[in-house]
Amino acid sequence: MDEGTPDHTTISRTRRLIDVETHREVFGWVLGVLADRGLVKGKRIAIDATRLEANAAMRSIVRRDTGESYEEFLGGLAKASGIETPSREDLARLDRKRKKRMSNKEWKSPADGDARIAKMKDGRTHLAHKAEHAVDLDTGAVVAVTLQGADKGDTTTLDATLCEAGMAVAEQVGREAGLRPNEEPKVNVAGIEETVTDKGYHSGAVVKRMKAYGVCSYIPEKKQKGRRNWAGKPAEQQAVYANRRRVRGEYGKSLLRRRGELVERSFAHCYETGAMRRCHLRGQENILKRQLVHVGAFNLSLILRKLLGAGTPREWKNRFGRLVLTLSLLFPCRINQKRLCRSRISVSVAKCFVRSRTRLRRPTCRKSATCTPGCYEAC
User: Fold this and answer.
1) Which of 30-34, 151-155, 159-163, 353-357 is the least confident region?
2) Which of 97, 101, 114 is nearest to 70 (CA)?
3) Fewest 10 Å CB contacts: which of 73, 251, 252, 259?
């Protein structure tokens, strides 16, 4: 191989980086398609996160410092405690007695170095990644998606996702200004003005940063014991109190209800029915590429819902089938109703005809001048 020719490792890394940027461009193109149809407003953004199970097993974790496996580490602890040949029961008993058994600072996965030890929603401890969505509250479109370490808290990952969403909205504003300069913009020109999250994102520092960004925050507070000490924190105190007033208002409550509906819907479509709750790739770059394609397809379903009244072609097919079934059930009912009405009409006509015939057959009294009305000859 010549000196100027790059090796296979460099080529694969370059391809990997290009692929990530290409996927981001495709995701931005999908947002542009949604913006042309008025499905991206960019004024009110809701942010939430969920954990994805990594493609790595807890049994394969190794120590970061020595590289020994978990079983070897327990064996060393057993020998240090005086047990020369420990059995599995001895190792399990020794493991239960340890206070802090798993730590991301001490352990890692050799298969997926980006995976982190975390608790899943069902209570299991597993190697996982953290996916975070920024959803437009006016339309339900996912404006930005990020993939971060599962050991990071919500208060530390909020800024990155909000920055991604702000850049995406600003890109759509510039795109509209270039394509349709004389028309009224469909995307909010001022960018993101309101941010809605759950109580896991609340902290005084986060609310203060949101105020510094020029964004109104709607973040519910956690229950705290006693009174907070605001000594030396006047700016943070004002930001927290303002956020509290906004959350307790009717508008804030409606935004929180909207957040629970739209953000959880995106998680359900992308990760539950979309089968991405457990990752089949390794490395955050590869998972992020798959995630961008997945969320882009979810955004395209909003166009189908707007055009067809259904989110997917299968749902549209099911609705068409239900329509045909309803019509097929409706026509026999209408025919039976018409038959019933005809039978009732024929019965009423027959009764009227019989009454008229009986009235004609009744002879009138000969003494009509002196007899009362309705008198017959028989009387």
Assistant:
1) 353-357
2) 101
3) 251
